UniProtKB/TrEMBL annotation, chain A:
<dbReference type="Pfam" id="PF01603">
    <property type="entry name" value="B56"/>
</dbReference>
<dbReference type="InterPro" id="IPR016024">
    <property type="entry name" value="ARM-type_fold"/>
</dbReference>
<protein>
    <recommendedName>
        <fullName>Serine/threonine-protein phosphatase 2A 56 kDa regulatory subunit</fullName>
    </recommendedName>
</protein>
<dbReference type="InterPro" id="IPR011989">
    <property type="entry name" value="ARM-like"/>
</dbReference>
<comment type="function">
    <text>The B regulatory subunit might modulate substrate selectivity and catalytic activity, and also might direct the localization of the catalytic enzyme to a particular subcellular compartment.</text>
</comment>
<dbReference type="GO" id="GO:0031430">
    <property type="term" value="C:M band"/>
</dbReference>
<feature type="compositionally biased region" description="Basic residues">
    <location>
        <begin position="27"/>
        <end position="37"/>
    </location>
</feature>
<feature type="compositionally biased region" description="Low complexity">
    <location>
        <begin position="1"/>
        <end position="18"/>
    </location>
</feature>
<dbReference type="GO" id="GO:0005813">
    <property type="term" value="C:centrosome"/>
</dbReference>
TrEMBL record, chain B:
<dbReference type="GO" id="GO:0019888">
    <property type="term" value="F:protein phosphatase regulator activity"/>
</dbReference>
<dbReference type="InterPro" id="IPR055231">
    <property type="entry name" value="2AA_helical"/>
</dbReference>
<feature type="repeat" description="HEAT">
    <location>
        <begin position="24"/>
        <end position="62"/>
    </location>
</feature>
<dbReference type="InterPro" id="IPR000357">
    <property type="entry name" value="HEAT"/>
</dbReference>
<feature type="domain" description="Phosphatase PP2A regulatory subunit A/Splicing factor 3B subunit 1-like HEAT repeat">
    <location>
        <begin position="288"/>
        <end position="369"/>
    </location>
</feature>
<dbReference type="Pfam" id="PF22646">
    <property type="entry name" value="PPP2R1A-like_HEAT"/>
</dbReference>
<dbReference type="Pfam" id="PF22956">
    <property type="entry name" value="VPS15-like_hel"/>
</dbReference>
<feature type="repeat" description="HEAT">
    <location>
        <begin position="533"/>
        <end position="571"/>
    </location>
</feature>
<dbReference type="Pfam" id="PF02985">
    <property type="entry name" value="HEAT"/>
</dbReference>
Length: 486, 667
């Protein structure tokens, strides 16, 4: 009878087998069991009881004289914050604030002439009071943005309306940057940028539009914004490796780069080479690679002379072990090749095709396949054909080898096609390479042996020297002791 | 003096000249330039060998300039280079030439990759010590100044780490300059640089004159501690520990405490977390008086912080904080000012906070003594023992020894039992594993009767857990229990149950019997082993699963030393011989291994006199007996065969439920 019972003893029978193999279950499965949680901002420290809100009269019912006064009162009322982690407290006040915010949104978007100079201060104060906050620690320290559900902002019912209001304010035809710049200053922008680390994608989306509008309207803040984004990225690359809003910031940058004047300033080129290219090393590249590649290509379309340093930069940071990233790099290279000028191509063809030749023979078939797809691209094919004398010798070895050895039949088939294409481009060179292939391999092997030999000799020399040193130290010692004896 | 230096460098230089023709620098540089990164990396890692081949002169004039010029490479290569150069002084001709190493390291200290830069700074710090004071001012200090005023933030960041090594040995005029440079980096407009400066502030303060600390470092500290970026502010907290140690109580109160108080209430949780995390260090640095006036209230706030991260960090420090309080009045302070907050944390909403508290709370009992523990702490322990989170319970149980010393474990036993039972059946195998580790300790403290009644069945259930690590821990646990409770107890309670499993339909359970016997036989002694265990093992030699059969062979080898000659000769040997003819290659191998061990044992028993002549350990020359098939075959099959066996062995060790399919399909 015990033969039919599961291998788990009676004591632990209460736990189902699937539960017990934890550690093997997929992360997402475990996560799903946990209730989806939302998060409050870190600002609610144990404070006293909230002030209760009392509804004010509707703006539309007020006379035009009173309206302005009432508008400011309502803005001030909306500066009061409520704790949304406590879902039962202040229900009435929360509802009043929500209604008021809605009313404010409508008020600034449907009425003209309501954004008067005296209101700016209260408007910005209300926005700052609501959105600027220290973001709370991540609920999940090893948050994987690709797999995990983000933690959502608990006070979103209010914050969303505040962002909405902010946008309508910025986009209003009455909005005057010359007045607003007194309030929307560097410190304001700095705090705004920090919010991009929010885990809530809805918030980041609003922030993106807001920052884009600010960049457009406040010429005096542009350089500052670029510099701060620069700092955020550098910190992301070299210090924390964590920042939720990278993709959004890159998206804004994409449109900023698009508007750069020619010739490009040194500052912008530096940003490309020292920030955007090293960003390719990030662990979570997949989350923002599309936006990053877009920025890079934008730069190259502006200034083709940047092609060589960019490609060399990418080759320097080429992924060593992460095949998924390698596929992304290959994708980006293809995007770059799509817009490359033939003169620029000549400058980088050698190092580039050495890398491609390695990718083609990758044992990860997706990498090999992605690289081989280059041969389906008409423009790239024409570039290869123009430079076949250079490229064929680089590619030939790998292609020839994998046509015989690769485990994946699709790859082998693709390689045959590529070899055929290359052969058609220069049949004679192809034949020469085929016949010298073996000799070439042997030459390589011999070189390898020579290297080993060299190092062996160096090693021996090192030992010999160490011995000499010992002896001389010993002699020294004996000389010294002799003198002291005398 | 001069004579002494001569012979030291002489042979090296001569050797270098002699090898000129053999190793033209071009060949070596070719290696350093090789297209293959891996080869380049290898060459860089053996840079000292290359330098040795070239001799000190040519290393200085040819190799180093080459390295300085070709800094653009993969970061991995640069990292290796930065590391190598730190130990290069001898290879360029000793301290007099140490400055030759500065140019390449200077370039390395400006690259983007933090790891490379940090390594370059580390090497520069190392080399700075080898400079003479004159060389330091002539070469090293100018380098620091260049880095400190570099255009790109990387060089300024690197400079921050170099001030403290050159300051103590510089002249007064240069010292003033160095301080000036450090000051400007503390207010750099790049946050990365300010962070670097803030993180080195404490270290720099330590080498400064006290007056300069007060007049210059303190204002810098105050500024950094109120930086707009929390990542800078939190580093100032670390610096606070070093600075506080340098100042007198009055200065501390006036110059540092306002800032520290502010940090403890910072609007960013990261800064508050840092205060909590560094609390013990801060406490020691500011001394008992300020601790009582300022830190205790701050600590209370941290314990009820709105962020769980901060509360958990503070909870971790509870015991250390209490321990470090002055003994006089300690009890009152803890009882009145700390304990009320701890009570709150026991029912915290966050499991990490509770778990952090549970890992230290037991330590309070030794500080507070028996009466307070029973009256005030015990209810908390009991509450935590019933906590819904297994880590909390586990942390309490794993620290039981602290309480045991003070009040004895009996006080807890009624509450312990349900907690233990629940942990023993936890869904997470790591939790189960952890509780098994504490079984022997618990058994010793609770006594044999309590154990038999309540815990014995748990220990047996673990033997059939389906995670191998648990089964393994369970067998070792049995052995420890037998050592504690004695052989008679083993014979009555443990051994029969273990032996019954030999007939289990699951081959993993049958193997568990063997694993138990392996560890129990020694603890149980010859009689039980021969009479009760051996027959079972021998019977299992006919098992249909090969894994069981070769484990029989291994077990027989293990228990061999405990058996007497008769048993070995009459019972063990024939069975092993039969297994030696097994169709399975692994069974054969282990049977032969065991046979040779047994044969040796028999030899020793037969000729005890020889024993003293040959004191070699049993099994050392077992190859003599291994495989009588002939040496030719042996060497031919050796390596591959061995590998195969090892793989199988590892699989058996790592046994995972999934592998059952693999084994069963073999039969």
């Amino acid at each position: 009878m015990s033969s039919s019972s599961p291998p788990v003893g009676a004591a632990s029978a209460a736990i189902s087998a699937s539960e017990k193999v934890d550690g093997f279950t997929r992360k997402s499965v475990r996560k799903a069991q946990r209730q989806k949680r939302s998060q409050g901002s870190s600002q609610f420290r144990s404070q006293g009881s909230q002030a209760e809100l009392h509804p004010l009269p509707q703006l539309k019912d007020a006379t035009s004289n009173e309206q302005q006064e009432l508008f400011c009162q309502k803005l001030q009322q909306c500066c009061i914050l409520f704790d949304f982690m406590d879902s039962v407290s202040d229900l009435k006040s929360k509802e009043i604030k929500r209604a008021t915010l809605n009313e404010l949104v409508e008020y600034v978007s449907t009425n003209r002439g309501v954004i008067v100079e005296s209101a700016y201060s209260d408007i910005v104060k209300m926005i700052s009071a609501n959105i600027f906050r220290t973001l709370p620690p991540s609920d999940n320290p090893d948050f994987d943005p690709e797999e995990d559900e983000p933690t959502l902002e608990a006070s979103w019912p209010h914050i969303q309306l505040v962002y909405e209001f902010f946008l309508r304010f910025l986009e209003s035809p009455d909005f005057q940057p010359s007045i607003a710049k007194r309030y929307i200053d560097q410190k304001f922008v700095q705090q705004l940028l920090e919010l991009f680390d929010s885990e809530d994608p809805r918030e980041r989306d609003f922030l993106k539009t807001v920052l884009h509008r600010i960049y457009g309207k406040f010429l005096g803040l542009r350089a500052f914004i670029r510099k701060q984004i620069n700092n955020i990225f550098l910190r992301f690359i070299y210090e924390t490796e964590h920042f939720n809003g990278v993709a959004e910031l890159l998206e804004i940058l994409g449109s900023i780069i698009n508007g750069f004047a020619l010739p490009l300033k040194a500052e912008h080129k530096q940003f490309l080479m020292k920030v955007l290219i090293p960003m390719h090393t990030a662990k979570g590249l997949a989350l923002f690679h599309a936006q990053l590649a877009y920025c890079v290509v934008q730069f190259l379309e502006k200034d083709t002379t940047l092609t060589e340093p960019v490609i060399r930069g990418l080759l320097k940071f080429w992924p060593k072990t992460c095949s998924q990233k390698e596929v992304m790099f290959l994708g980006e290279i293809e995007e770059i090749l799509d817009v490359i000028e033939p003169t620029q191509f000549k400058k980088i063809e050698e190092p580039l095709f050495k890398q491609i030749s390695k990718c083609v023979s990758s044992s990860h078939f997706q990498v090999a396949e992605r690289a081989l797809y280059f041969w389906n691209n008409e423009y790239i094919l024409s570039l290869i054909e123009e430079n076949i004398d250079k490229i064929l010798p680089i590619m030939f070895g790998s292609l020839y080898k994998i046509s015989k050895e690769h485990w994946n039949p699709t790859i082998v088939a693709l390689v045959y096609n590529v070899l055929k294409t290359l052969m058609e481009m220069n049949g004679k060179l192809f034949d020469d390479l085929t016949s010298s292939y073996k000799a070439e391999r042997q030459r390589e092997k011999k070189k390898e042996l020579e290297r080993e030999e060299l190092w062996k000799k160096l090693e021996e020399l090192k030992l010999k020297k160490a011995l000499e040193k010992q002896n001389s130290a010993y002699n020294m010692h004996s000389i010294l002791s002799n003198t002291s004896d005398e | 003096m001069a004579g002494a230096a001569g012979p030291g460098t002489g042979p090296g230089a001569a050797g270098g000249d002699g090898d000129d023709s053999l190793y033209p620098i071009a060949v070596l540089i070719d290696e350093l330039r090789n297209e293959d990164v891996q080869l380049r990396l290898n060459s860089i890692k053996k840079l000292s060998t290359i330098a040795l081949a070239l001799g000190v002169e040519r290393t200085r004039t040819e190799l180093l300039p080459f390295l300085t010029d070709t800094i653009y490479d993969e970061d991995e290569v640069l990292l290796a280079l930065a590391e190598q150069l730190g130990n290069f002084t001898g290879l360029v001709g000793g301290p007099d030439f140490a400055h030759c190493l500065l140019p390449p390291l200077e370039s390395l200290a400006t690259v983007e990759e933090t790891v490379v830069r940090d390594k370059a700074v580390e090497s520069l710090r190392q080399i700075s010590q080898e400079h003479t004071p004159i060389a330091l001012e002539a070469h090293f200090v100018p380098l620091v100044k260049r880095l400190a005023s570099g255009d790109w933030f990387t060089s300024r960041t690197s400079a921050c780490g170099l001030f403290s090594v050159c300051y103590p040995r510089a002249s007064n005029a240069v010292k003033a300059e160095i301080r000036q440079h450090f000051r400007s980096l503390c207010s750099d407009d790049t946050p990365m640089v300010r962070r670097a400066a803030a993180s080195k502030l404490g270290e720099f303060a330590k080498v400064l004159e006290l007056d300069s600390v007060k007049s210059e470092i303190v204002p810098l500290f105050t500024n950094l501690a109120s930086d707009e970026q929390d990542s800078v502010r939190l580093l100032a907290v670390e610096a606070c520990v070093s600075i506080a140690q340098l100042l007198s109580q009055e200065d501390l109160e006036a110059l540092v405490m306002p800032t520290l108080r502010q940090a403890a209430e910072d609007k960013s949780w990261r800064v508050r977390y840092m205060v909590a995390d560094k609390f013990s260090e801060l406490q020691k640095a500011v001394g008992p008086k300020i601790t009582l006036n300022d830190l205790i209230p701050a600590f209370q706030n941290l314990l009820k912080d709105c962020e769980a991260e901060v509360r958990a960090a503070a909870a971790h420090k509870v015991k250390e904080l209490c321990e470090n309080l002055p003994p006089e009045g300690r009890e009152t302070i803890i009882m009145n000012q700390i304990l009320p907050f701890i009570k709150e944390l026991v029912s915290d909403t966050n499991q990490h906070v509770k778990s952090a508290l549970a890992s230290v709370i037991m330590g309070l009992s030794t500080i507070l003594g028996k009466e307070n523990t029973i009256e005030h702490l015990l209810p908390l322990f009991l509450a935590q023992l019933k906590d819904e989170c297994p880590e909390v319970r586990l942390n309490i149980i794993s620290n039981l020894d602290c309480v045991n010393e003070v009040i004895g474990i009996r006080q807890l036993s009624q509450s312990l039992l349900p907690a233990i039972v629940e942990l023993a059946e936890d869904a997470k195998w790591r939790v189960r594993l952890a509780i098994i580790e504490y079984m022997p300790l618990l058994a010793g403290q609770l006594g044999v009767q309590f154990f038999d009644e309540k815990l014995n069945s748990l220990c047996m259930a673990w033997l059939v857990d389906h995670v191998y690590a648990i089964r393994e821990a369970a067998t070792n646990n049995l052995m420890k229990l037998v050592k504690k409770f004695g052989t008679e107890w083993a014979q009555n309670t443990i051994v029969p149950k273990v032996l019954v499993m030999a007939g289990d339909p699951n081959y993993l359970h049958r193997m568990t019997t063997l694993f138990c016997i392996n560890v129990l036989s020694e603890a149980c002694g010859q009689e039980i082993t021969t009479k009760q265990m051996l027959p079972i093992v021998l019977k299992m030699a006919g098992d249909q699963v090969a894994n069981v059969r070769f484990n029989v062979a291994k077990s027989l080898q293990k228990i061999g030393p405990i058996l007497d000659t008769d048993a070995l000769q009459e019972e063990v040997k024939p069975v092993l011989q039969k297994l030696g003819q097994d169709e399975d290659v692994d069974v054969k191998y282990f049977a032969q291994e065991a046979l040779s061990a047994v044969a040796q044992r028999l030899r020793k028993l037969d000729f005890p006199a020889k024993d003293s002549e040959e004191p070699s350990t049993p099994g050392a020359d077992k190859n003599h007996f291994l495989r009588p098939g002939g040496p030719g075959e042996d060497t031919g099959k050796g390596p591959a065969y061995q590998l195969h066996v090892n793989t199988r062995d590892t699989l058996a060790q790592l046994e995972i439920a999934e592998l059952v399919h693999f084994s069963q399909s073999r039969d």
